[in-house]
Design brief:
Largest sheet: none
Order of helices and strands: HHHHHHHH
Distance between the termini: 30 Å
Number of strands: 0
Shape: globular
CATH architecture: Orthogonal Bundle
Helix content: over 70%
Number of domains: 1
Mean pLDDT: 86
Low-confidence stretches: none
Length: 206
C-alpha cells in the first residue's frame, strides 16, 4: 500500500502542477507517514500523539501552502514540514525493517518505499531553499516547480546526473551532494544486504 501510494504521488506531481497539487501533496505525505507508523512497534499512546501532531501540523501547513497572503515564505515553511515528516517516515520504516528476524518480500517493499521517500524528501528541501531563499534554485534560470525539484532529486539520488538541471548556489549543491551520497550508501548497504538475504517461501521451508 505504501509503495503504491508513493508511486501515485510521484506520478501525480509529474503530470500536474499548481498550488492545489502542492497542497494535496502535503496531505499525501502525511498519509505516507501514517502508513509507515501502522507497523511501528511504538505504544498506542505514542502513536496517537504522533498522528494528532501530524494532522494538526499538516492542516496548518496546508493553509500556508494554499494561502496567497502567506506568499512564498508560507510555501517554503510547508516544504520544510513535508521534508521533515518524510524523514521521520524513512526512520520508522528502516528501523522496522531492520527489526525483522528474517527478510521477507515485505521487507523489500519497505526499503524500496524508503528509497522513494528519500527522493521526495530531498525534493521538498530543494523547494524550501528556493521559496525561502528569494532567488532561483537552478542555474541559468531553469524553471522552479514541483516537477523539476523531483526530477532533479531523483536524478541526483540515483547519481544519473543528466546535467540539464544544476543547483545555482553552494547550499543547494551541498545538499545535492549529500543526497547523492545517501542514495549510493542506501543502495549499496541496506537494499543490497536485504536482497542478498531474501529467501522465498519454498527456500525458507527447506
Amino acid at each position: 500500500m505504501l509503495l503504491i501510494l508513493l508511486v501515485g504521488t510521484y506520478l501525480m506531481n509529474a503530470f500536474r502542477n499548481g498550488r492545489i497539487i502542492d497542497g494535496l501533496q502535503i496531505v499525501l505525505f502525511a498519509g505516507v507517514t501514517v502508513l509507515a507508523l501502522r507497523n511501528s512497534s511504538a505504544s498506542r499512546r505514542t502513536l496517537r500523539l504522533v498522528v494528532v501532531g501530524l494532522i494538526v501540523g499538516t492542516a496548518i501547513m496546508l493553509f500556508l501552502s494554499l494561502s496567497l497572503s502567506a506568499g512564498m515564505q508560507g510555501t517554503g515553511v510547508a516544504n520544510i514540514w513535508a521534508g521533515l515528516i518524510l524523514l521521520f517516515a524513512v526512520v520508522v520504516i528502516v528501523r522496522r525493517v531492520l527489526s525483522f528476524s528474517t527478510v521477507s518480500i515485505q521487507s523489500i517493499y519497505g526499503v524500496l518505499s524508503a528509497y522513494l521517500i528519500i527522493g521526495l524528501m530531498f525534493a521538498s528541501f530543494y523547494a524550501a531553499i528556493d521559496h525561502l531563499g528569494g532567488g532561483h534554485f537552478f542555474a541559468n534560470s531553469q524553471p522552479d516547480n514541483t516537477q523539476t525539484y523531483q526530477y532533479f532529486s531523483f536524478t541526483t539520488l540515483t547519481t544519473l546526473g543528466y546535467g540539464d538541471f544544476t543547483a545555482a548556489d553552494s547550499g543547494g549543491r551541498a545538499i545535492a551532494v549529500l543526497e547523492a551520497l545517501t542514495g549510493q550508501i542506501f543502495l549499496a548497504t541496506l537494499v543490497a544486504r536485504l536482497v542478498a538475504a531474501y529467501r522465498g517461501p519454498a527456500e525458507r521451508q527447506r
